[in-house]
Design goal:
Length: about 60
Amino acid sequence: MDFGNPELNRQAAAYQQVWVHEMQAGLERLSTRGSPEIVVKAVRDIVADVRAEGPKPVK
């Protein structure tokens, strides 16, 4: 994002790095059941099913 202010742009980029590399990992550790790999696998399974069989009607 460009906030039109170099200092604000620098601060936003620094915050994003902290969020991605530190805060998200910390939040994941707080959950006893948190596992992004499980979510990624579930999404991939759904995508594979839809590609193989086509979309199913919503009940």
